[in-house]
């Protein structure tokens, strides 16, 4: 009986500790998401169009496929997509957990092992790249302009997120895709409770000296600053 009571107390303490952690985590997310950084961005020489794009959970950073500063098309080939459409001139970058990306096309396919590896940072990551044509602005797609120097900093951040091979080239992950216009590449880092796909996107905005949350793991934490 004593052993049973002791086990129950341990289980209760563990449960209460987990609930307390979730509460603190939620409070931390809320307050750090609404704190703005780079709010006083006064640079007026802004001529490069950028988009932030959300599917309701995950945020992509959308850049021009090529301009005088960066030509992504030399490394990320439209011929590697199923559509092989050369007319699409925008490129969306989304960093995330490799297991989620490749093994979980829908929430119904989510495995407990995939989720556990993701939240604990035990899995590897991938970069999801999607070709787009003209994007329509709405609540989940925001357009803004940045300067050439800001753009250079942003692309440096994104470039440094790819995992390179021995020849210093980005590494395509098989022929995986969600549709006709996307490709997956190996990426650096690990997804976890404190660094998600949206944290990565938020950091990309920070790198380019754009409006961003102090810290966020949610897409809403990014889009809050662009309403």
Per the principal axes of the C-alpha atoms, what is the gross shape? Answer: globular
Strand content: 15-25%
Element order: H for helix, E for strand? HEEEEHHEEHEHEH
- Count of DSSP H/I helices: 6
Oligomer: single chain
| Largest sheet: spatial strand order | 6-2-3-4-5-7
Instruction: Kindly report how far apart the N and C termini lie.
Output: 59 Å
Low-pLDDT stretches: none
Number of strands: 8
Report the structural category.
alpha+beta
Global mean pLDDT: 91
CA radius of gyration: 20 Å
**Percent helix among the residues?**
25-40%
Question: How many domains make up the coordinates?
Answer: 1
Describe this structure in words.
This protein is α+β, with helices and mostly antiparallel strands and 227 residues long. Helices cover 33% and strands 20% of the residues. The protein has one domain (44-226). The strands form two sheets. Strands 6-2-3-4-5-7 form a six-stranded antiparallel β-sheet. Strand 2 (48-54) and strand 3 form a beta hairpin.
SSE arrangement:
Elements: H1 2-34, E1 36-37, E2 48-54, E3 59-64, E4 90-97, H2 98-103, H3 112-120, E5 125-132, E6 141-146, H4 148-159, E7 182-187, H5 197-207, E8 212-213, H6 219-223
Antiparallel strand pairs: 1-8, 2-3, 2-6, 3-4, 4-5, 5-7
Helix pairs in contact: 4-5
